Amino acid sequence: MSLFPPESTDDDAVLLPGVTAILDRHGISGRPLRFEDGSLPVYAVDDLVLKLYPPIHRAECALEAGVLADLAGRLPTPTPEVVATGELDGWGYLLMTRLRGRGLSEVWPTLSARERDGIADQLGETLALLHKEKVPTLPATDWGKVVIGQRARLLEHHRKRELDEVWLEQLDGFLDTVDLITPREPVPLHTEVMPAHLLVGPDGRLSGLFDFEPAMRGAREYEFASVGLFFARGDGRVLKRVLKAYGFTDIGPELSRQLLGMTIIHVYSNLGWYMRELGIPAEKSLDALARHWFPL
């Protein structure tokens, strides 16, 4: 009898027998409590976290475990440490240490401007060091081919997400004027740096960065699409703070356009949703949208 279903499921009752079997395998007796958020099933078990990967996402288990092992103790913001990995009924699993702190989304509204500046600085410094790490688990990437591939699927991708035609018809023309294929060597990227993946400790500093399963190599500017959208949320002061702490010196309108370009080609991009979350400028042009979302 299988302890896990053959496909992905959000049914906690169906998953629990498999979760219990994994915990028993590693001699862990705590009661598993499922986190509500996340695209994959994740459970807290005392001081540990158990993350499950259905068969269709099995490859992400090895990648995330490898990246976490490569980064262990290397960044100024803590990342989970790998305790064990394995497989059960075709599902992969990663057992790791639990980071402590409160979610950034919960904490951010209570922080002073000075405390927010400190977190922005720490995030910029963390990403600068992440991008300098070798992270041998991540395969080499031909970034030019990635961009070409994403552009080939661009209109289909955004049309499926019901982006209004007034924006769809501008995408190719805008991207033709933006440098997406930078001369720099591709660097290790988290790709989804956002409050949902960041924790803050009692001292007001970032105490955790997690969820590395979509990590890849790419242009450093690709990383800052999610930073601008979800961390800074259109606040130019916050975004500039992160970029300066990272080490950017070319902060200005052209970088704003480049970050919007990276947003447009991002594998998880949903421009219509971002527009509902962050609003749109009175002028319905992508140049105006770049200034609105990434005001530099």
UniProtKB/TrEMBL annotation:
Annotated GO MF terms: kinase activity
Native source species: Allokutzneria multivorans
Source organism phylogeny: Bacteria, Bacillati, Actinomycetota, Actinomycetes, Pseudonocardiales
Alphabetized UniProt keyword annotations: Kinase, Transferase
Protein name as catalogued: Aminoglycoside 3'-phosphotransferase/choline kinase family protein
Keyword Transferase tagged: yes
Domain (Aminoglycoside phosphotransferase) ranges: 39-249
Source taxon at top rank: Bacteria
Pfam families: APH (PF01636)
